[in-house]
Amino acid sequence: MNISVIIPIYNVEKYVERCILSIMNQTYTESVECIVVNDCTPDNSMKIVERLVADYKGTIQFKLFHHEHNKGIAAVRNTGLYVASGDYILYIDSDDYCEPDMLEKMYAKAMEGNADVVIADYWDTWPKKEIYMVQQMPGINENYAKYLFQGKISTSVWNKMIRRNVLVNNKLDSIEGINMGEDVLLIHRLFFLDFKVIHLSEAFYHYVHYNSTSYWGNISKKSLCDHLLMEKYLIDYYTKAGCYIELYGELCNMRMRHRMLLVTHSRGKLQKEWNSLYNNISLKDILKYSPSNKRLFLSLLVAMHMLPILNVLYWIKDRIYFSGQKRNLYTE
How far, in Å, CA of 49 to CA of 45, rounded? Predict the structure, then answer.
């Protein structure tokens, strides 16, 4: 088997048909398997998948697996990886979709360069527009970690075709229990190792931003706690690797962005508790390492020392920061 496509299924009945059809309609289908993992979806998503698979007449081998209880996206990715037999793995999210020549061109690029990882550009897809997202590769004396932290390379798994043996032999499975940012942890660990990575300067994957039931569209207290766990894991990982000082600016930038996310989705004691986790970020660090749009970011960081003012600011700014969506606020 050349390629294993792994697709999780949970609460995506509005989008899953488009996703599955985008795989069925690929121009390259020989020696391809598509592993669909049902994570106890409560809607009709699996019925739609089963109907599509029953009617499919092509050569892709569809394999359906069912979790006995809901385990989360990290466990789903692991289930798919453990049962996959392809030389290369491609993770696809079931609310997204792909161009028909994705498998053909990514696999050809992998074969051409004997690559362990092929990175492709992708599309950020919104209801009325799409933005082409170019992936920037580091130079000879630069490292992947900084590019990942800086967003020059996406920390998502779905625009990357990865040699399965690289994942299996290095125990690069997803960390179960962390379901927001689980791909961030996987990609950082993968790119820290010395593998052959090739960039394919074409976009095939449409990353959908309008699914209100996705992790990002429905931020929960659990997903916010996952951000804290992901942050701690990355700091510990790069500290043990001896890279903490080298990556201090990037780690500090990440922590400031997480601070904004946590504090603007909480109230009361929990908000104060989460805000206090970042008291060791100095004003010097804020001035030097703050994310883009520094004027607004700095004003909000100052306001964090006066949380009632921050809450008023974010009530006003909701439409800018969260596309008009109502934020879930957690107090304990």
Answer: 6
